[in-house]
Amino acid sequence: MLALASLLILSSCGQTAGVKTAGAQQATGEIIASSETAVAQTESGKVGGFLQDGIYIYKGIPYAKAERFMPPQPADKWEGVRSSRMFGPTCPQAVRMGWGADEHAFAFHWDDGYPGEDCLRVNIWTPGLNDGKKRPVMVWLHGGGYAAGSGQELPSYDGFNLAKKGDAVVVTLNHRLNVLGFLDLSAYGDKYAKSGNAGLLDLVAALQWVNKNIAAFGGDAQNVTIFGQSGGGGKVSTLLATPSAKGLYHKAIVQSGSMLRTMDAKYSRRIGAAVMDELGLKASQIDELQKMPYERLLAAGEKAVAKVKAEVEKEDGISTFIFGWAPTVDGDVLPAQPFDPQAPAQSKDVPVMIGTTLHEFTMSTYVPAFRTITKEKAVEFLKQRYGDRTDDFLAAFEFHGIDARLTDQPDGVAHAFLRRDLITAKRHVADHQRPLATSCHAARIDDHLVQGDGEGGVVSQHHVGGRVADQNAVNARLVYQSCRRVVVGREHGYLVAVALHLYECLDGNFFLFCCEISHFY
Fold it and tell me: What is the pTM (predicted TM-score) of this model?
């Protein structure tokens, strides 16, 4: 349950017609699946998908294989045409808590699929095969942190609309998570040296597969955008700092998930040792983990994470947003923290778009009473947190021009996302002097980014009172028309920009992404 002490915000996204993606298409037409239709050649062999409303769809294509805790290897080859019309296994994970609440399950309409450790699969939506076109490729990285989720878990992860409207090739994928993807056993010998980053190496393997095979699906391997929200945004942030991923993507979009820091090896190794203790195993018995039932391994892993986190918070006085199942800075796969203390040098030439969702972790999602709360009651709650600054807080949201009904209350997690997104934006632009498109939703950010129309800050024709408006389907064109240069934020001493030429990002398709973003999520 979200904390009642967290702040209340306007519920505006659902009231903005431009963001609701009017006219969004749905896959409702005839489906054609045969031994001759939608057959594509990959390095491992031919795959057979299906054609629906002009979009070729492929699901569950193996992009790699891996033994437990080991780095991924190329997928096995096959003879004939491999049927690839249904989603493959999802990474085993804890039972989703949301299933315990009927209303939440109905609203989110999750598809958790079927679990299996042979889960390294990609799904593809494309408007054309072998037609001579080089379409922009968008690789979606799912949310759920590094512990849960899949490339199919929400209906909005379906790539049909984005492929149809944007003439783009959309890719989603599954990779190893939680104890299978991020249990650091590197202290137990070279065999397990990369175990703490196995799930991250899966993402690299998927991008390598895209690089080698996407041309067969009408995509341009030299125009790949990685994008994700929440945990998926964290994965994008981390890939920007992963040397083995360099050159496999060319643009990046982080939505509510900027990751400044991840696990330090001294902590991740400690968790690995704690797992061994929980299971009563000696170092000489390390290989027993490879054949242990997943449920027992996960239970020991969760206990170890909780134990070590409590010890570290007491000993070192640290408080971290991500602790446990996440990539680890091992000096090899991940040489340094992604965006702390500076942006990764390897991504200095990568255009990045960073945004924060409007409704992430809003209280009305979990507390029905807040859906009909009066403004007066909402203000009472605001005063508990902001005291004499409540009026400033109200003004920061009411300037948007939405009605004055305060209904949603995001918890501290949502504001941690916003803070990290802003810091990531600052460091990417300041360290690399790269253009950056930013979209900070439902928040007054002039304490962080200087707003103006000259050399005093962010350039935009669509700003009011020193605050950045939502970058939705309405003002995306204004950003496109007016935000053409990087300017210096004098007050804070770093470069800030919303100067990325949106149409350049996806060769004419990025504006369509802006319009369809809420539908795709």
Answer: 0.78
